[in-house]
Design a protein that fits this description.
heterodimer; A: mainly beta; Double-stranded beta-helix; twelve-stranded antiparallel beta sheet; three-stranded antiparallel beta sheet; 15 strands; 48% strand; B: mainly beta; Lipoxygenase-1; 2 domains; six-stranded mixed beta sheet; 27 strands; globular
C-alpha cells in the first residue's frame, strides 16, 4: 500500500512555495516569515503553525473589504510545512522580483506577509450582483500563489494601440500599470433581450500582462464556507 | 496525476517529474499477436552507433545499466527502467518501439499505451489504439530525447517493416555500407564477425526470431532501395514547433536560460521518500544500492527514510529560485500566449485563440464563451437555427450563438472544458449541440433533431457541419474516439460527435434503441451508429 502511495509524498523543499501537483501549494514556513493565506484554504500542515484570522494589520490595510464579515485572509506563522488548495483549482506560484501584480480577490491563494499589498475596488467597474470586484495589489520581492480554474493564459498587452478586453469572470491577474476601464458592449440589439451574452468587459490598455483563466466560474468557493 | 498525451505531444521530463529514475511501461496486445518491445539508444544523428544500447529481449540492459528491460508486470506488456542521469553523453535519444512478431498488422492491435512512472506515480501516458494504424508491422511509441534537457515525446509512428526495418531506420548508414555483413548477422550460428565495432551476434539474434522468415528479412529491411518514408517524419516532428503539448506550450520570444539541472536541485538527488527498490514492481533483489544515487539527500535527511515521516521542520526556509529564474515574467512564462500563424490555435487544453483577421470570415461561438479579446471585434447575437422548431426554453436545449467579426484575436473557453479543434476539409461531422463551442461561419451547418422517448427534453439536438473550416468541440474530460462497427452504441447523453463521411451514411446514421437494464428504469437512450469503416464517434466521460 505504501508503495503505490509513495509517489505522492512531498518532494524535498527547494523553495518557499512550490506546487504539489497542479492544485496544491506547499509552503515552507519559518519563524519570522509570515504568510497571508485565504481563509479556509489550508488543507494540511506539519509542524507548529498558528493561524490568526482577521488580523489587525489586515483590517487596517484592507479596510475596504471589511464590512463586518471579516477579511478573507488569515495570517499564518510558525515553523513547518503548510499545504493550501482551493477546491481543485490550478495553483500558479510566482516569485516576485521587485515586480508588482494586481490579482483578482478570489484568485489569491497566499502571499508573503512582507510584501507590500493593498486592496482596492476596481475602478469604473461594479460587478453585477452584490460584491464589487475587489483586487489585491501585491508588490515587492517575495512569493505569491494564485489560483486559476484550468490552465491560465498570459497575454501581453500593448502591442499596437488595440485594447485588450477581458470577461471579468475569467480575469485572474494583471500588471497594475495597465489602465483599466469597464466596458459595456451592448448595442441596440441587446436592448431587446438579444445581447451577445457578453455584456461587460474590462478593457486594458498600456504595457503589461493580463492573466486569464479558461473558465467563467468566478465563484469564490472559499468564501461560501465562511 | 497522470497526464494524457496525444500523438505529437512532448514535454520536458523535469516538468513531468523531478525524478530521473523512471519506469517506462508499455501495454500493447492484439488477438493472436505477440510483440517485441525494444528500446533503441540513439546518438545525436539518431543512429544506433553503439548496439549495446539496443535493449531488447536478448540484451536486457545497457552496459552501465542505465536502461534495463524488466519484463511484463503491473499490467504492462513490457517495462523498462531508465535512469536518465546515468545515460552516457553520446546517447541522445531513447526510442521505445513495439514490433509484431510473426504475422499480423498494427490495425489489429487493441487499446494500448506507453506510460512513465516515477516514484510510484504515473506521470504521463500516451494511449493509442489499432485504429490509428493500418498495415504497419512496427510502431515507434515514444521517445526520450535530449534537447538541452531530457524530454519525452509521444510519437505513435508506424513502420511498414518489422523490427528489421526499424533497425535499418536507426542504423541505415551502417547497413548500406555493409551489405555483406548483414547476411552474416542473420546467421548467428556462425562465428561472430571479427569487426569489433559490430558485435553481430547481438544484432543478428533479433533478426532471426522476430522476422517472420529469415529470407524476406534482408529483402525487406536491407535491400538497397531503402524505405524512404519512415525515417523522415520523426526528425521533422521534432523540428516543427510544439503543437499542443499541454505543459510546455511553444515558447515564443525570449526563453530564459534553462538551468542544466531542473529545479535547481542536484541532478542526482533522490526523490523524497524513495526507498531503495521502491520502484513499482521492480524485480526483488535488484534493489538499487543507495549509493547509486551517489549523493547524500538534501537537507540532511537520512537516506531511505520511509515515506510518511515528517520531512522535518525545514531548517531555515530555502528561498530558492524557481525553475526558469526569478521574477514575474519567468513564473508566468509557461502560460504565455502562443501565437502561431494559424486561425485557430489551442493555447492549452482548455483555451482556444482565434485570429479573426485571418481568413476574413467571422466565427460563430456559443454565447458567453469569450473570455478575452484584443483588437476591434464586434459581437452580435445569432440564433443557432433552433427557432421555428419546437424547442422548449425550459429544456435548456436552446443554444444561443454570437457572431464575432472584425479583426483581432478572440480567446474562447468554457468552464475549463477540454477543447478540440476539428478541421473539416469538405467532409462532415455531426456534433451534439451542447458540445459545440465555436465554428467558422463559412461552414454550412444544419440543426437536426433526434427524437426519442427518454431523452431529456424530448429530443437530442445535433448540428451537422459541412464544408471547409474548423469546428471547436468541447468535452468534459478526455474523450474516447471509437471506430464505427456494426455494434457501436453510445449513451445519448455522453456522445459528443460522430463523423458523417457521406450523406448516405448519415441518412442511416442513428437508430434509437431503448435498452432497459436490470435495476434501471429504461430511461437511458442509447444511440446505435452504423456506417462504413472509417467512421468514428467521440464520447466524453461525462453524461450531461
Amino acid at each position: 500500500m505504501n508503495q503505490q502511495l509513495a509517489g505522492y509524498a512531498p518532494t524535498p523543499i527547494a523553495a518557499r512555495m512550490e506546487n504539489h501537483g497542479r492544485a496544491m501549494l506547499k509552503v515552507a514556513m519559518a519563524t519570522g516569515q509570515d504568510l497571508y493565506a485565504r481563509t479556509g484554504s489550508m488543507v494540511a500542515y506539519e509542524g507548529f503553525i498558528q493561524y490568526e484570522p482577521n488580523p489587525p494589520a489586515v483590517r487596517q490595510i484592507a479596510s475596504q473589504w471589511v464590512t463586518g464579515e471579516g477579511a478573507p485572509v488569515m495570517k499564518c506563522s510558525g515553523d513547518g510545512l503548510l499545504y493550501l488548495a482551493d477546491y481543485g483549482a490550478d495553483v500558479v506560484v510566482i516569485n516576485l522580483n521587485n515586480d508588482s501584480l494586481s490579482v483578482n480577490g478570489s484568485n489569491v491563494l497566499a502571499f508573503d506577509a512582507h510584501l507590500q499589498w493593498g486592496v482596492e475596488k476596481v475602478k469604473g467597474m461594479a460587478k453585477l450582483a452584490g460584491q464589487g470586484l475587489w483586487n489585491v495589489e501585491i508588490a515587492g520581492t517575495g512569493w505569491v500563489a494564485l489560483t486559476s480554474r484550468g490552465t491560465p493564459i498570459v497575454v501581453e498587452c500593448g502591442r499596437g494601440e488595440d485594447e485588450t478586453y477581458v470577461d471579468p469572470d475569467a480575469l485572474v491577474a494583471w500588471s497594475p500599470n495597465l489602465k483599466v476601464k469597464g466596458k459595456r458592449s451592448f448595442k441596440a440589439s441587446a436592448l431587446v433581450g438579444r445581447g451577445s451574452g457578453e455584456a461587460y468587459q474590462m478593457a486594458f490598455s498600456g504595457e503589461g500582462i493580463v492573466v486569464v483563466q479558461p473558465s467563467e466560474d468566478s465563484t469564490d468557493r472559499l468564501r461560501i464556507r465562511g | 496525476m497522470a497526464r494524457e498525451f496525444q500523438r505529437g505531444h512532448k514535454a520536458k521530463i523535469s516538468d513531468l517529474t523531478a525524478g530521473t529514475d523512471l519506469y517506462v511501461g508499455v501495454q500493447i496486445a492484439g488477438p493472436g499477436l505477440t510483440f517485441d518491445i525494444s528500446c533503441f539508444g540513439l546518438d545525436a544523428n539518431e543512429q544506433l552507433s553503439d548496439d549495446r544500447y539496443f535493449i531488447f529481449f536478448n540484451q536486457p540492459k545497457s552496459p552501465e545499466e542505465s536502461i534495463q528491460q524488466l519484463g511484463a508486470q503491473s499490467g504492462d506488456t513490457e517495462s523498462f527502467r531508465v535512469t536518465l542521469d546515468r545515460i552516457p553523453a553520446n546517447i541522445h535519444r531513447l526510442s521505445f518501439t513495439a514490433t509484431i512478431d510473426g504475422a499480423g498488422q498494427m490495425s489489429q492491435v487493441g487499446p494500448g499505451y506507453i506510460r512513465i512512472v516515477a516514484g510510484g506515480e504515473e506521470v504521463v501516458r500516451y494511449a493509442f489504439t489499432g485504429s490509428e494504424f493500418t498495415t504497419e508491422r512496427a510502431v515507434m511509441l515514444g521517445d526520450f530525447y535530449l534537447k538541452d534537457v531530457w524530454r519525452f515525446a509521444a510519437v505513435g509512428q508506424g513502420f511498414d517493416g518489422g523490427l528489421d526495418a526499424l533497425l535499418k531506420n536507426f542504423g541505415g548508414e551502417v547497413a548500406e555500407e555493409q551489405p555483406a555483413a548483414q547476411p552474416q548477422a542473420a546467421a548467428p550460428s556462425f562465428a561472430p564477425p571479427p569487426q569489433a565495432a559490430q558485435p553481430a551476434p547481438s544484432f543478428g539474434a533479433p533478426t532471426a526470431p522476430s522476422a517472420p522468415a529469415p529470407a524476406p528479412a534482408p529483402a525487406q529491411g536491407f535491400a538497397p532501395p531503402p524505405q524512404p518514408a519512415p525515417p523522415q517524419p520523426a526528425p521533422q516532428m521534432y523540428a516543427a514547433p510544439t503543437v499542443a503539448a499541454p505543459m510546455a506550450p511553444p515558447q515564443s520570444g525570449p526563453v530564459p536560460p534553462t538551468p542544466p539541472s531542473p529545479y535547481g536541485q542536484p541532478p542526482q538527488q533522490p526523490q523524497f521518500g524513495q526507498v531503495p527498490g521502491q520502484m513499482p514492481g521492480q524485480v526483488p533483489g535488484q534493489a538499487q544500492p543507495p549509493g547509486g544515487y551517489g549523493q547524500p539527500a538534501p537537507y540532511g535527511q537520512p537516506q531511505g527514510m520511509p515515506p510518511g515521516m515528517p520531512p522535518g521542520v525545514p531548517q531555515g526556509v530555502p528561498q530558492g529560485v524557481p525553475p526558469g529564474g526569478a521574477g514575474l515574467k519567468a513564473a508566468l512564462q509557461p502560460y504565455r500566449e502562443a501565437a502561431t500563424g494559424q486561425r485557430w490555435t489551442p493555447q492549452n487544453q482548455q483555451l482556444m485563440r482565434v485570429e479573426l483577421g485571418m481568413g476574413g470570415t467571422p466565427i460563430l461561438a456559443r454565447q458567453g464563451s469569450m473570455v478575452m479579446y484584443q483588437g476591434k471585434v464586434d459581437f452580435s447575437h445569432k440564433g443557432a437555427g433552433f427557432t421555428g422548431r419546437i424547442v422548449g426554453n425550459a429544456t435548456g436545449q436552446e443554444m444561443e450563438l454570437m457572431r464575432c467579426s472584425g479583426r483581432g484575436q478572440v480567446f474562447l473557453a468554457e468552464n475549463g472544458a477540454h477543447l478540440h479543434p476539428i478541421e473539416l476539409q469538405g467532409d462532415g461531422i455531426c456534433v451534439s449541440a451542447e458540445n459545440v463551442l465555436a465554428f467558422d461561419e463559412s461552414l454550412q451547418y444544419e440543426v437536426r433533431r433526434i427524437e426519442g422517448h427518454g431523452i431529456p427534453g424530448g429530443a437530442l439536438f445535433t448540428m451537422q457541419f459541412q464544408g471547409t473550416g474548423t469546428v471547436v468541440v468541447k468535452t468534459h474530460g478526455i474523450p474516447v474516439v471509437l471506430p464505427v462497427t456494426p455494434t457501436t452504441f453510445a449513451d445519448a447523453n455522453a456522445v459528443v460527435a460522430w463523423s458523417s463521411a457521406s450523406q448516405v451514411i448519415l441518412s442511416s446514421q442513428v437508430r434509437l434503441r431503448r435498452n432497459a437494464y436490470p435495476g434501471h428504469s429504461g430511461e437511458t437512450v442509447n444511440l446505435q451508429f452504423r456506417g462504413a469503416p472509417g467512421n468514428f464517434i467521440v464520447v466524453q466521460p461525462y453524461e450531461v
